[in-house]
User: Fold this.
Amino acid sequence: MPTLTTNKKAFFDYIVLEKVEAGIVLSGQEVKSTRKGLMSLKGSFAIFKGTELYLVNAHISLYPQAGSIPSYDPDHSRKLLLKKKELDKLIGLLKQKGLTLVPLSVYTKANYIKVGLGLCKGKQIHEKRETIKNRMIEREIRSAIKRTH
Assistant:
């Protein structure tokens, strides 16, 4: 499963409680752009419109070889594909206070493009500081181990 893009900021801003895999509806030139790595998940999230799930604010740049497409909007909402049972479960979980669906990564799986979604809870400022502190400690440990070898 080669990863095409990740949302690094999501792991810093949120605590991931559960992960879900979803398909995504893309046009032909969007598929080519995504496979080429011209997609950004920064600031994107998933919302329900009725009983359907959509990915909002995911930026897919225009494929350079596609020519100019005047009506193309790189940030339009894209439908996510899940089984009805999974959708119902997510609707129930999202009714809990403070939970949101955030895309964590986009990857290929058997010629399909999949979106890895995380059911997330927002981190508080002190939790973010703790994450930074832990990252610094791990970095210092790794450098100390390298120096001893």
